[in-house]
Amino acid sequence: KPFYLPAIDTTSGASSRSPNSPYITSARFSFRRARARSAKKRASDQKPPIEHAVDATAATMSGRTQLWVEKYRPTRIDDLASQEEVTKTLRGAIAQGQLPHLLMYGPPGTGKTSTILAVARTLYHPSVLKDRVLEMNASDERGIKIVRDKIKNFASHSVSSQKFDGYPSPPFKIIILDECDSMTKDAQGALRRTMEVYSSTTRFCLICNYVSRIIEPLVSRCAKLRFSPLGRDAMQKRLLDIASAQDVNYDATIYDQILDRSGGDMRRAVTLLQSCHTFYGDKTPNVEELSGGVPASLIEPLWTAVKANNLTEMSRLIDSLTLEGYSAATCFSELHDIVLKDAAVTDAQKATFFEAVAAADKCLADGANDHLQLQTVCAVLCH
């Protein structure tokens, strides 16, 4: 704060106030405090060299650490791998400018979300895409409140009539509800009425893995598009394209292992390829370890002990698998592939094994012990 110096006595040449006057003391304190603030500001403006180095490193690494799943996500309908029937249907709807409510269902990683996002980019100019498309993950926002608040708020807004060259720009918005099979029944019931009220200005795209978990009134209001697991050839071509773009050179057997572990899930395949490159570089990767599967060195001896009816060895190997942290479900998946390909096992024996696995899987879902269920299934195999 500003301060005033005391008057000077011209006759004596002395100050009318002493050096210890409160006015002088306050002035000295204010000056010191202002000087300290100025020094602190100069120090904050000058970053230490180490902080500059960290920022530069982070900027350099941001491109390297980007997830390949997002980096190579298809942006156009023509870029989608497989799903010819679905893309053909959507192209016809876009050409006519009449997109209905959609229900996309199928296994994970088959291109459901990528497809509807590609459709949105085809319909709308990038400058209005954010205002025309609302993408939500229903597994995070699954209650009835989100339907009443967020969805209704977006759907109730009017659509601008602005047109762009090369984009159809239809007079409606799109709401994408991903993983909507996780929504509660009450939320699905509320959504039914919302779809009816705002059908003139909004189109809904429901995405799920299990269509049986969607209530029938919602299913009947949508055009159903089924996404099947991707073909091996289409997945391999896509993986090779990504590997070429990222300068990854692996033997053909590595790509075969990745495809075997992916089970038609393109997202899983691309993530596994990036993991191989991240952890192993140009060296030969251990795909089994990165995928979380049971190594052949553990599962094959178990199958040998089962075929030999060696219960003691079988029990020891199951104990080893449990101690290593492998779940019963993972072991069942590995045993399933082995039993299915073993010509020495009859069809009747395979059927008995699959029934035992189904029963054990139900028990695991109810909270049963992994170790005991694995023991039970292997005992059935021995029998």
Automatic annotation (TrEMBL):
SUPFAM superfamilies: P-loop containing nucleoside triphosphate hydrolases (SSF52540), post-AAA+ oligomerization domain-like (SSF48019)
Record GO biological process: DNA repair; DNA-templated DNA replication
One GO cellular component term noted in the UniProt record for this chain: DNA replication factor C complex
Keywords (A to Z) from UniProt: ATP-binding, DNA replication, Nucleotide-binding
Record field: compositional bias (Polar residues): 9-21
Molecular-function annotations in GO: ATP binding; ATP hydrolysis activity; DNA binding; DNA clamp loader activity
Region (Disordered): 1-21
Segments forming domain AAA+ ATPase: 98-231
Coiled-coil segments on the chain, per record: none
InterPro entries tied to this protein: AAA+_ATPase (IPR003593), ATPase_AAA_core (IPR003959), DNA_pol3_clamp-load_cplx_C (IPR008921), DNA_Rep/Repair_Clamp_Loader (IPR050238), P-loop_NTPase (IPR027417), Rep_factorC_C (IPR013748), RFC_lid (IPR047854)
Family statement drawn from the similarity comment of this UniProt entry: Belongs to the activator 1 small subunits family.
Protein name from the UniProt record: AAA+ ATPase domain-containing protein
